[in-house]
Design brief:
about 30% helix; about 190 residues; about 25% strand; alpha/beta
Length: about 190
């Protein structure tokens, strides 16, 4: 199904489905997709760890997204470190030499996990930078990381988010979007 990384990438190859996927997960309107690349690689040199992003997306407003399907739990304790590294690689590619930091684009890294990455039974974990001494102070470094957990308590999620997570968890089609996804999954599996 969709939790298979290969199937996920092929399903997200459909720009309309990929766009709607972002809108479902973020529960907001997303600008039209301007650029999308599967398995985007960052291999700067042979002595540094490279990365391969599942689905790298830029929208018409300049927002950058990384959409990842994560089924393996073996390194779950290091997922926040992984997103930090992904963020640093993406940032290095987004800002040209000599450019001001004001041109650094907004980025959202989204991991869809088939397990609970933090063992708190939440279905959604949104991580942003905060000041410990003044948590109410906004720290807008233009980054956000969201972990979705297909196994967690669905409290606080939209109906569309619930239906999507249930679909990834193997509970079948529950709404119009998961029906589209299911048709796309069937199509790519026929190839």
């Amino acid at each position: 199904g969709l939790s298979n990384n290969f199937i996920f990438r092929l399903a997200m190859d459909d720009t309309d489905i990929c766009h709607e996927q972002l809108e479902v997960l973020l529960d907001t309107k997303v600008a039209k997709i301007d650029f999308k690349e599967h398995e985007k690689e960052y291999e700067h040199d042979k002595f540094r760890k490279g990365i391969r992003l599942d689905v790298y997306i830029q929208d018409k407003d300049g927002m950058v997204y990384d959409l990842e399907m994560q089924v393996g739990e073996q390194e779950k304790a290091y997922l926040p470190c992984r997103t930090r590294y992904y963020q640093s690689k993406m940032d290095g590619d987004l800002l040209a030499k000599g450019k001001s930091y004001r041109y650094l684009k907004n980025t959202i890294i989204i991991f869809i996990c088939t397990f609970d990455p933090f063992d708190l039974n939440l279905s959604k974990y949104t991580l942003v930078t905060k000041c410990l001494e003044a948590p109410e102070m906004p720290v807008n470094n233009r980054t956000m990381t969201i972990f979705f957990n297909t196994k967690g308590d669905r409290k606080g999620l939209t109906e569309r988010q619930k239906a999507f997570l249930d679909y990834v968890d193997g509970k079948g089609v529950q709404d119009e979007f998961t029906a589209k996804l299911d048709e796309r999954v069937k199509f790519v599996k026929m190839d």
